[in-house]
Amino acid sequence: MTQRKINARDIVIEVETSVTDTWLGIENLATVTINKGENEETVETGDFDSEGAYEQEIMQRGASLELEGQYKQDHLTGALPPGRARVEEMAGEDKVGSDSLGRIRFRYPHDTLWKIWTCTFSLGEQGGGHNDKGAWGATIVKSGLTTTAAVS
From which domain of life does this come (predicted)? Predict the structure, then answer.
């Protein structure tokens, strides 16, 4: 077996539609950042017997996914690409409480399992400068444990 470097751009990220186990790719991404330490909480466990050494335990694990790209829409209808439209729908101001939860899945091409997160969605800043294309971004924050499913 040969170890190879993996292209960041080869990651496959999909968002679940309103129909369970029906997925849409999230299109036209330029940057994807997975932070497996987001929302981690620790507790200090040091005491007099620690002899001055810091001690801690992790009490909560978390993770997030940052997506960025250029803003893109149909020039006639204004429609967003379907995957991005679903992300924006899930980040809508009416999505609060349990309605704010959706699912994403992601993997690299040689992975045999999808990583699946129940998560919340927030839109990032949009815009740009005089000679820029418009920016699009979203933050996806994991809620609960990661599950997996076989790649078919």
Answer: Bacteria
- Alpha-carbon distance of 116 to 102, in angstroms, equals 10
**pTM, rounded to two decimals:** 0.91
Structure tokens at 14: 């999909």
Q: What is the mean pLDDT of residues 87-107?
A: 97
What pLDDT is attached to residue 1? 80
CB 87 within 8 A of CB 138: yes
Calpha distance 138→92 (Å, rounded): 12
**Residue 92 covered by a domain:** yes
Largest CA distance in the chain: 70
E strand map for 26-151: 29-35, 41-44, 56-60, 64-70, 102-107, 113-123, 135-142, 147-150
Evaluate whether residue 114 is within a structural domain. Answer: yes
Q: Is residue 52 part of a domain?
A: no
Residue 46 domain-assigned (yes or no): no
| pLDDT exceeds 90 at position 5 | yes
What domain count does the chain have?
Answer: 1
